[in-house]
Amino acid sequence: MPNIFIQAIAIKNNSPQEGFPFAIPAIKKLNLRFRKPITFLVGENGSGKSTLLEAIAERCGFDAMGGNKQHKFSADEYSPLASHLYIERNPMLRIDQGFFFRAESFFNLSAYIDENGNPKYWGGRELLKQSHGESFLAAFNSRFREGLFLMDEPEAALSPQRQLSLMAIINGMEREGKSQLIIATHSPILLAYPNADIFFLDENGIAKVSYEETEHYRITKSFLDNPGLYFRALFGE
Question: Is the peptide bond before 21 cis (omega within 30 degrees of 0)?
Fold first, then answer.
């Protein structure tokens, strides 16, 4: 039986109804239950994916800039949603291990790790002396074992081949049965991961969808099937 550390999340009844991020439909109507160890959050920019992950991370004791439970270096940053977020945790499991991965702040986390940590625990090389994609994979390979893992756009610096490498890492974690991963992504490659739950955030709230129902799949497949059609529409030819 896989470890499901977070079983459900919802917005508290006394939360504000206006202003950021409470006016975002997916946040305002938030009521989500996790039933599988791998969950993807998808939606357009501004749909609330990152905002939601940041709030979950803060409530679970991760630093706002990312890292594991021991990384504490951005005390001034906080999530406006966190205190209004209800989290139903598995009473049999403690969230002692895991990682909050934010693509947009991973450079800052890498600098902090290189200055305060030991490279041998991160693949043997300082993270900032690797390419952006290499440092991503160094973190995934060396620190992703068991616990709760929150990932915001992990594909940002990864080539398609390296995205497949990440899928292999995720699969290894799933087979061990000691991890829960919640991943916000735009990658049609990662979203193809088998037997994961996919939740789509839009102006109507949050809904569970199949891989083939996502815009990421439909638009990518349509474009690859007939790129000329898109060029004519986009370029006015």
Answer: yes
